[in-house]
Design goal:
The chain has 128 residues and is α/β, with parallel strands linked by helices. The chain has 2 helices and 8 strands, in the order βαββββαβββ.
Length: 128
């Protein structure tokens, strides 16, 4: 069996608030939570686990591949909620999306300050 991505822990200031944010933007499913974790599940079984570590949170980058319809819904949600967003990771093009890599993309921050990215086409295509 080849390796596949299974789960990650995302540091949060408030795990419930962060999980709700990701649930809304990613249209993720609630998953059973336990201990220090509030969990969501993405397609393919990937688990996002939100926890409140007792340390200063360092920004991480998380990119999610979505289809065009999901991108439209998520982008509308960002606009509706007045969430600052950019077309580029350097945050030089505020209030825009990009059309790089043959699709669309947008960058924004989650409630804990992590840099999120939504893209509609993967950066690399799988070999045929």
């Amino acid at each position: 069996m080849s390796a596949t991505f299974n789960h990650t822990i995302i540091a949060a200031k408030d795990r419930t608030v962060s999980a709700a944010f990701y649930r809304d933007v990613l249209e993720a499913a609630d998953a059973p939570s336990w201990g220090f974790f509030t969990n969501l599940q993405l397609d393919g079984g990937v688990l996002l686990q939100f926890a409140e570590p007792p340390v200063e949170i360092q920004m991480q980058h998380y990119a999610f591949l979505v289809d065009d319809e999901h991108f439209d819904r998520a982008y509308a949600l960002l606009l509706e909620r007045g969430i600052e967003h950019w077309a580029d990771p350097q945050m030089q093009r505020p209030g825009e999306t990009n059309t790089e890599h043959g699709g669309r993309g947008v960058y924004f921050k989650d409630p804990a300050g992590h840099a999120l990215e939504l893209i509609t086409r993967p950066y690399l295509r799988s070999p045929q």
